[in-house]
Structures are given as C-alpha cells and as structure tokens.
C-alpha cells in the first residue's frame, strides 16, 4: 500500500518544477496547465499528506496566477490545514484563505481546527489561524471564535497580539456583538508602548471610524494622545484620517487638533504625512484661517513640483477646498489651467474637475470657451470628458448657471460639430428640454437646429443621429419661429436622409407634416388679411397712404407715374392687381412646396418601415386634399369668397389646432398623481418587481411630451453681462463649399449667426503660444466680475412645482452590518441609564425578528441616547471620583465600567437587574447635574 | 478596508503575484486584472502613479521589469501606499538580495508570507523590515 505513495512522493513534481516547466513549455500555456492539472488531480487524492500538500500548493499557484478553479479542492485544503507539520499546515491555510468564501459548503468544518490552532502555543500556527480568520471569517466563524480572539488580544507575544488586532476588524464586521466582549481590550491597546501594536490598532479604528465616525467621538482623548505623541508616520496618517472624520462632527475636536496638525505639517519631512495634514485641513478644518493658509502654501509647493504625483495630489487637494474657499483656486488658476494640457490624462481630468468646481453664472461663458478650445486640441477621450462635464455643469438644477440661453443653445450646436463628439444623447436631451422649458430660447433654437439640419455632412455621422432627431423635432414643433419654413422642409427631405435609421426618419417626416400644416395655415391666414378691401375701406387706405406720402408696398408699379397717385381710379386698379399678385405668389410658393414634398416622398411609399410609410401617407394625403381645393381658387375674381367659406381652411385650421398646442416638461411625479381607479389591484402580482427594478435609477430628465400639468414660471431678476462677441462664419464657409458641389439640394445661406462660435478654431490657430493666451483669458474669466453690464434678463425657465428638483433618490441602504456594529459600539462606549436600558432591551428583542433592511427604526432609537452620552460623564465629574485626573484616566474609568458590563452581558445575562439598579442611581444623579455635553478634550 | 488587492505584474502583463483582500470570483479577477494591466502599463514614467479604476484607486510603481500595483479605497493616502510598495520591495531586497522577477516567481510563498506579515484584512499592520522577515528566517532555519 505504501509503495505507490512513496513512488508518488519521489517522482512528484514540486512547485518549483512546475514553474520551471512553465518557462520551458512549448505546448502552449493552456495545454500545459491542463496537463499539470491532471497530475494534481491524481496527487491530491493521495493519502500521503506531503504529496497532497505539494499538489495543493501547485493548485493554489495555478489558481492565483492562472485563474484555475480550485473550489473543488476544499476538502483537501482542510486536510492539509490539520497536518501536524507547519509547512503543510501553511499550505493548507494559504489555500483556504485564497479560495474559501462565505458560501463555501465545507466552511463550518474548519471551526474546530481554527479554534485548536488559535489556542496553539506555537505563535506561528496561531498566527496562521488569525490570518486565515481575517480573510475568510463568516458570521458563524466570528461568533464561535470570538472568545479565542479575545484571549489573543491580550497575548504577551507582540506579533500574535498584533495579528489578533488585525483580525478583529473582520470579526466585528461579521459579528457585531463581539464588540461587547473585545472592545475594551482593543481600546487598551491604544495605550500600548509598542509601535507595532499601536499601528495595528489605529488602523483598525481608522477603518471603524470611516464607517461611522460618531460612535468613536468618546475615544477622541486617546486618539489625541496618539496624535501628539506618536513619531510613526503610518500611525499619524491613520490618526489624521480618524480626526478628519471626527472634527467634521464636533467643532471642539477641530479646535483642539488644529495646532498639532499644523505642527506636523510644518515639521515633517515625509510628503505622505504632509499631504495627509493638508487633506485634513482642507476637508475638515477649513474654518481655521491660519491652518488653511499654511495648507494652501503647501499645496502650492505640491503644484509647483516636477513630480507628477505631487502635482496630481495638489490638484486633488485644491478640488476639495474649492467647494468652500474659491479664492484658493483663483490664486492658483494659472497652474490649474495649464494642467488642462498636461501630458497625463489623470492630471487633466483632475484639473477639469477643479475648473468645474468654480464654474458659475459670471464665468460660464468664458470657461466654456476656454475648455472647448482645449478640447479641440486634445485627444477625443478628454474632449468628450470636457463636453460631458460642461453639459452636466450647465444643465445642473434646470440650467441654473445659464442666463443667456441663446448663447447656450449655440454652444450646444457647436458641441455637436466637434469631431468625435460622443455626447449626442445628452445634447439631444438638452435641446428638447430647453425647447420645452425656455420659451425665449426657441427662435435661437430653431436657428441652431436649421444650421445642423441643412448640413448634409452630419447625415453621415451615426453618432450625431440623436442630435439630428432632436433638431428635426424642434423644427417641427417651433416652426412658427422660423424665418424660412421652406428651407426647413428642404433640409428635412434632402436625399441623404435616407441614411438615417427609420425611427429618426419618422421624426423627420412628422416634422415635415407639421411644417406643411403651419405653412398652409399661415397662407390662409394671410389670405384672409389680404383679401381685397371693400370699397369704403379702400378709400380709407388710399387717403391714409396719400396723407403719409408713402408709397404702397408694391411701389414698382407706382414709381413710374408720380401723377397717377392722384388718380383714384387708376390707383384702385393697381392696388387690386398687387393684392392679387401677392395672393398668387403665396399660393404658388405653397404649391411648389407641395411639389418638393411630393417628389421627395413618393419613393418612400414602397418602404417596408411602417413608421415611415405611415407618416409619408399622412403627408401625401394632406397634399392631395389641398391640391384638389386650390386650383379653383387660384385666381378668385370674386372677392366675396371669404376664407371662412373655404372647405380647406376649416381642415387646415383644425389640424393646426391639433399640432400647435404647446408641449411641456413632465414631472417625475406625474405618474404618481394619477389616481388609481377603485377596484384596480395593481400591486398584487408585481410586488417582486420592486426588487428587480429597485436599483434602476430614473433618467435625469424626461422628454416624452405630454400636456403640461402645472407650470409655474419664475423670472430670474439677475442680469448678466454680454461680453465682446465676435461673429464667425467658419461653419458657413464649409457649407458653401458643399453647396457648390451639389447645388440642387442645398439651401440659400441666409441665416446669420449673431453669437460667437463657442470654439472658434481660427482664433487659436495662428497664435503661436495659445496656452498663454488661454491662461490670460481664463484669468479674466475666473476673476469675479465687479460690475456686470446689465443688458439682458434671464428668460423664464419652466419648472414644475414638485418632484423635479429633487429626483427620487434611491434610498441609500447602508450596510446593515455597519449599523449593527455602530449600535453595539455605542452600547459599549456609553454609560448606562434607565432609558438606555429599556430601549436596549427592546432592541435586543427586536433584533431577532427585524430583517436587516429595516434598521433605521433602531437607529432612531439609538439617536436620542447619543445626547445622553455626555450626561454620563458629567456624572463622573460631579461625583468627584476622578477629579484631578486627566481625561484619559477618566475615560478609562468609564470604560472599566463598560467592559464590566460587557463581560456580564457576555457571560451571564441575569446580572442585568443589578445593572439597572445602578443605572437608576445614576439617573438620580443625572437629575441633579445639568445636562451638558462634555468637552472631550478638556 | 484600505488595501483591496496587491498585484505584481511584469512588463509583458503576466501576473506574478496576486493577493486579494476581498472575495472576487475567478471571472471578476480575470477581468479586473486585464483592465488594470492594460490601463497602467500603457502609462509613461512621467505620468503620475495614480489611476482611478471603477471604485478603486490604483497606486502603482515600477521596479525594473516588475510593476507593483496596489488597489486601495479612494480615501487612502496615495503617497503612503507608494511608501508601502517601496517598503515591500526593500524587504524583499533584504531577503533575496537584489530581488528580481525570478525570485518572486520561484518563491511566491515567501512573498505571500511577507505580505501576510505586513497587511491584514487590508490594513497595514507591520512596517519594520526585521519584524516582517523574522518568521520567514525562522522557517528557513527549521526546514
């Protein structure tokens, strides 16, 4: 029986052989691995522990570096773990730490082995078990092994105690009640003279405090002592992290630590510690001017450093401070702006974030211009990052920082023109949203949309289709603001639209229909207004025009004979003629429009896309109807035919009524406002849907057009200055070139753009040192404007009453484990008092049956007790028991009591009666002492 | 938890050591390592050593042919992690004597041993070289 095992052992390949083999193999990595795995399969089943452990070692190697599944080996891991030989045990432990997780089925089998090893006299074996526990502890393991870990927390062997401290964090996380047992010993270790212990325990508290800082406020005196006394930078960094959290909660802590923190900042040679001091000051102590000034001077040192790391961190620190103290950024703006061109993408992003932090109403115009010109020069990724952050900054809180919407709409147009623009979806959303919300921006919106629509180059860029869809919709919806609807129709029907996806094409066609209806409607409206005046009216018109001495509109017919003016008969004839002419012109242009549309749409009747087919039919049907009516009335000699009698007028009017009703933004709560009809049970079978959809956040803006519900407009009284705006025709020149080539489908370039292009490519190109230029520009723009020239009020932005500014936030379900943990820490750190006791008792009862999700209730119970925290201590003072001692001792005294309590609770719970008695005594004392919150550090 | 994982990767992008302080499935690990290696190895010496990736911040440093990559929480002090990497390298240097990639390849368990001494559950617990190396030296003597 033993011979094969010996043979196995003798000829087994060790890990080293395996690695060497790997380096020499010629059969390919995966083939080599599967061959090695075959060996491992065989070897790991061996009864010889040595063979087995070597096989397991090879397996963990492959599992760690070559992603080989090793979950099947759980049993073998456990076998190796229980080996009496350290080297085999270690291999077992390493494999367990590496491959076990909460759901490993055989996990419970290792409890006893771990317990045995934790109690082992060999500190290395106990250390192995602690390492393992630190990485894989589950609720059960943590619960069962808490006493063992507790024992080791007081071990006289420093390395072992250190490891126990390291493992305790995981134990607390998994089994919060362990705090009741172990917390006191953990806190005691803060006093340890050994720097290893101190660094471990401070690390643990740093982790604990980062989850729930408030619970650890009572330990501030201990932490303070470490902050002042410790010489170890690692420890100091962790302590500073704790204090950054505590100082934000308790101003007195902040006041107390300012001086030591500054002292460290001045004194230390270690950049890491210095940076941590800076971070602490800018995040939590920015109210202390001297400290902040010192920190800012240090930040400037970092920014000026050659080292990219320090520069990055300097920018990072600036972005923390920028939220509260803008001047700090302004002081360093030159470096910030220059960093936008840094070779390192991370530094660029960081400075972009910084610039975004300082963007405001007064500088948004210039910052956008600077940023976009940087964007054009940098790589596509960063360019899109710039566009994205500009879009989100400007649209924040319903375009809060935008005053001049005409400018912003042009900016959106410019962004769409940037090559590689990947933000089409966002631009599309904003174009539609502005259209719906800002009435005053619509004419500019039409202008921008027109420019985008008529450019055939855009139709070849699929990433812009979203924007084109929005512009097409805008043109149809707000066509009344357009100066030249015919041009829009032509743009919407240009031949390259066949490249669009069907759904967007359908939007195009729908817009054509809307524009057509609008044209007809306005045509017939004019018809009415220019219908031939009745004879007595004419006299009035005549006498008026004569008395004013102005020629009539159709002056060319009149200029020839000045004397004719005084001949009423001739004049009447002329006027009549000119009216007719104008009417005919109008009809003609309408008909030619119809012809263009028919021509473009007829081929579409053969399409298979229903959306397109349907809309095409609609448009063509309408044209058919009109055409039947119009020819008879081309030259209606008899003026008596008023438009009211025209069949077609009625039709057009009702269609126009249908399409001209204004669309508004939709509130997020709109759906909720609909009352559910009685008897309709919606939630019966769909309750599970919440679980599925719970984590899906609603989109930030909703655009499905619906009729407005309640709109309250608000005017913003703030004015803004319009800066020197130079016009540019860059984009138009490109267009002209295109038009020359394909004259047929191109439109007259009549529209003028009053607003400067946000990124005028020409402005930068010929200037050799454009960075300098931009820095100067940025300098101007970042500086707060003293006296803006008031020229234009901010237009009204439609805002729905509720539910819009505050988007439904998915409730931040913090990990219930942490809640539990902080509760227990509270319990341990607090003095008992009667109220405490009762609520605690209730809680303990409740804890069993409340599912982990609903701990908020419990948190509510806990909160009022926080206030009592101090009163317990003031009792100490009034007692005079510890008078004359410094606080640490005091807290120790307090903690002794706590730990006593904790131990009692842990071992025999019937001691509670006695506790309650004591607590009641304290309550009596409490009644005498004023309720005050103690100064932890005094 | 401060440190989430430690990776050592050579210039070719092959992982030489991987230590995680939170459980990830094989697939998650494969994806994560692939992304990080692609992101970090493409960077030049002049660029900074901090890369944000998913919800981690990767702090990395290159020593000869080997990249040391440490994934940390966003709150962690980046410079301290750089110092930690340096400490790790110095410790290995002291043990192996002018450490190179091969040392780590062939003595992976020792490298893991050092890390175990230095880091527990993501917290740095030991920063003294002699303390870190003491158990390894003892083990070497006994075996």
Largest contact between chains: A-B, 59 and 49 residues
Residue share in helix of chain B: 40-55%
Strand percent estimate of chain A: under 5%
Biggest sheet of chain B, in brief?
Answer: 5 strands, antiparallel
Domain AP complex mu/sigma subunit (chain B): 3-142
GO cellular component, one term (chain B): endomembrane system
Keywords (chain B): Membrane, Protein transport, Transport
Protein name (chain B): AP complex subunit sigma
Report on the structure:
The complex is a heterodimer of chains A (938) and B (143). Chain A is built from 44 helices and 2 strands. Chain A has a two-stranded antiparallel sheet with strand order 1-2. The longest helix of chain A is centred in the middle third of the chain and has 34 residues, at 568-601. By secondary structure, chain B is an alpha+beta fold. Chain B is globular and about 45 Å long. Chain B starts with a strand and ends with a helix. At the A-B interface, helix 2, helix 4, helix 6, helix 8 and helix 10 of A face strand 2, helix 1, strand 3, helix 2 and helix 4 of B. Chain B: Pfam families: Clat_adaptor_s. Chain B: InterPro entries: AP_complex_ssu (IPR016635), AP_mu_sigma_su (IPR022775), Longin-like_dom_sf (IPR011012).
């Amino acid at each position: 029986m033993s011979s094969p095992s010996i043979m196995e052992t003798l000829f087994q390949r060790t890990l080293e052989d395996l690695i060497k083999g790997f380096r020499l193999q010629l059969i390919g990595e995966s083939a080599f691995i599967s061959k090695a795995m075959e060996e491992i399969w065989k070897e790991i089943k061996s009864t010889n522990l040595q063979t087995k452990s070597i096989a397991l070692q090879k397996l963990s190697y492959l599992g760690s570096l070559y992603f080989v599944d090793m979950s099947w080996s759980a049993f073998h891991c456990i076998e190796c773990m229980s080996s009496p030989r350290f080297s085999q045990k270690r291999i077992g432990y390493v494999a367990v730490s590496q491959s076990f997780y909460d759901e490993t089925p055989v996990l419970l089998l290792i409890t006893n082995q771990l317990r045995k090893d934790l109690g082992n006299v060999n500190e290395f074996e106990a250390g192995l078990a602690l390492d393992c526990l630190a990485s894989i502890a589950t609720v059960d393991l943590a619960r069962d092994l808490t006493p063992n870990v507790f024992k080791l927390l007081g071990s006289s062997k420093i390395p072992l105690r250190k490891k126990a401290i390291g493992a305790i964090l995981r134990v607390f996380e998994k089994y919060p009640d362990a705090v009741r047992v172990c917390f006191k010993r953990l806190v005691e270790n803060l006093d340890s003279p050994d720097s290893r212990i101190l660094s471990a325990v401070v690390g643990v508290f740093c982790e604990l405090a980062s989850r729930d800082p408030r619970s650890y406020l009572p330990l501030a005196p201990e932490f303070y002592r470490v902050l002042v006394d410790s010489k170890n930078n690692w420890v100091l960094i962790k302590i500073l992290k704790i204090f950054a959290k505590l100082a934000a909660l308790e101003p007195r802590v902040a006041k107390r630590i300012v001086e030591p923190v500054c002292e460290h900042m001045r004194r230390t040679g270690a950049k890491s510690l210095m940076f941590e001091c800076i971070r602490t000051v800018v995040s939590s102590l920015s109210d202390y001017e001297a400290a902040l000034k010192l920190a800012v001077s240090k930040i400037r040192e970092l920014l000026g450093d050659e080292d990219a790391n320090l520069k990055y961190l300097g920018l990072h620190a600036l972005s923390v401070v920028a939220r509260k103290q803008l001047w700090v950024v302004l002081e360093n703006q030159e470096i910030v702006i220059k960093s936008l061109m840094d070779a390192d993408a991370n530094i660029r992003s960081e400075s972009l974030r910084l610039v975004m932090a300082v963007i405001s109403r007064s500088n948004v115009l210039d910052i956008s211009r600077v940023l976009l010109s940087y964007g054009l020069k940098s790589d596509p990724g960063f360019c899109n990052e710039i566009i994205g952050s500009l879009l989100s900054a400007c649209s924040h809180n319903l375009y809060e920082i935008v005053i001049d919407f005409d400018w912003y709409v042009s900016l959106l147009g410019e962004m769409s023109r940037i090559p590689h623009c990947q933000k089409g979806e966002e631009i599309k959303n904003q174009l539609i949203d502005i259209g719906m919300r800002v009435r005053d921006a619509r004419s500019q919106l039409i202008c921008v949309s027109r420019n985008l629509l008529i450019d055939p180059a855009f139709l070849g860029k699929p990433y812009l289709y979203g924007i084109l869809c929005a512009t097409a919709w805008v043109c149809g919806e707000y066509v009344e603001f357009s100066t030249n609807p015919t041009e829009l129709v032509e743009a919407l029907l240009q031949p390259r639209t066949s490249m669009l996806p069907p759904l967007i094409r359908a939007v195009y066609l729908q817009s054509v229909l809307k524009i057509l209806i609008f044209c007809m409607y306005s045509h017939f409206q004019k018809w009415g207004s220019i219908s031939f005046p009745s004879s007595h009216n004419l006299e009035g018109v005549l006498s008026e025009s004569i008395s004013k001495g102005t020629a009539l509109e159709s002056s060319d017919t009149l200029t020839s004979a000045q004397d004719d003016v005084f001949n009423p008969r001739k004049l009447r004839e002329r006027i009549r003629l000119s009216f007719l002419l104008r009417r005919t012109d109008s009809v003609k242009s309408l008909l030619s429009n119809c012809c263009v549309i028919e021509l473009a749409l007829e081929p579409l009747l053969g399409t298979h896309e229903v959306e397109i087919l349907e809309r095409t039919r609609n448009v063509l049907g309408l044209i058919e109807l009109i055409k039947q009516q119009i020819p008879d009335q081309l030259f209606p000699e008899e003026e008596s035919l008023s438009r009211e009698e025209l069949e077609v007028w009625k039709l057009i009017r009702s269609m126009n009524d249908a399409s001209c009703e204004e669309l508004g933004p939709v509130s997020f709560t709109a759906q909720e406002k609909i009352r559910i009809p009685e008897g309709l049970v919606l939630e019966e079978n769909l309750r599970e849907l919440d679980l599925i959809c719970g984590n899906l956040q609603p989109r930030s803006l909703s655009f499905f057009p619906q009729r407005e519900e309640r709109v309250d407009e608000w005017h913003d009284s703030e004015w803004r200055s319009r800066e020197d705006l130079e016009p540019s025709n860059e984009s138009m020149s490109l267009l002209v070139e295109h038009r020359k080539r394909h004259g047929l489908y191109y439109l007259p370039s009549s529209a003028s753009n009053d607003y400067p292009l946000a990124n005028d490519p020409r402005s930068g190109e010929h200037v050799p040192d454009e960075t300098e230029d931009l820095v100067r520009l940025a300098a101007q723009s970042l500086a707060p404007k003293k006296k803006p020239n008031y020229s234009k009020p901010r237009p009204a932005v439609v805002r729905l009453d509720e539910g819009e500014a505050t988007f439904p936030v998915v409730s931040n379900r913090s990990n219930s484990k942490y809640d539990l943990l902080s509760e227990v820490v509270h319990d341990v750190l607090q003095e008992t008092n009667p109220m405490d006791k009762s609520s605690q008792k209730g809680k303990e009862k409740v804890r069993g049956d409340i599912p982990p999700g609903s701990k908020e209730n419990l948190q509510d119970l806990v909160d009022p007790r926080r206030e009592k925290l101090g009163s317990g201590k003031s009792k100490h003072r009034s007692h005079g028991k510890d008078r004359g001692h410094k606080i640490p001792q005091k807290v120790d005294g307090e903690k002794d009591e706590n730990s006593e309590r904790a131990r009692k609770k842990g071992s025999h719970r019937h001691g509670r009666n006695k506790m309650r008695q004591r607590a009641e005594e304290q309550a009596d004392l409490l009644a005498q002492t004023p309720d005050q919150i103690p100064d932890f550090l005094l | 938890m401060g440190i989430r994982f430690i990776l050592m990767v050579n210039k070719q992008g092959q992982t030489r050591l991987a230590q995680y302080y939170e459980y990830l499935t094989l697939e998650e690990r494969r994806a994560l390592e692939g992304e990080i290696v692609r992101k970090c190895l493409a960077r030049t010496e002049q660029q900074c050593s901090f890369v944000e990736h998913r919800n981690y911040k990767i702090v990395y440093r290159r020593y000869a042919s080997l990249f040391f990559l440490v994934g940390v929480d966003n709150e962690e002090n980046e410079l301290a992690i750089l110092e930690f990497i340096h400490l790790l390298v110095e410790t290995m240097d002291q043990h192996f004597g002018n450490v190179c990639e091969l040392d780590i390849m062939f003595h992976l368990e020792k490298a893991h041993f050092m890390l175990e001494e230095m880091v527990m559950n993501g917290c740095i617990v030991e920063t003294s070289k002699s303390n870190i190396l003491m158990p390894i030296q003892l083990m070497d003597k006994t075996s």
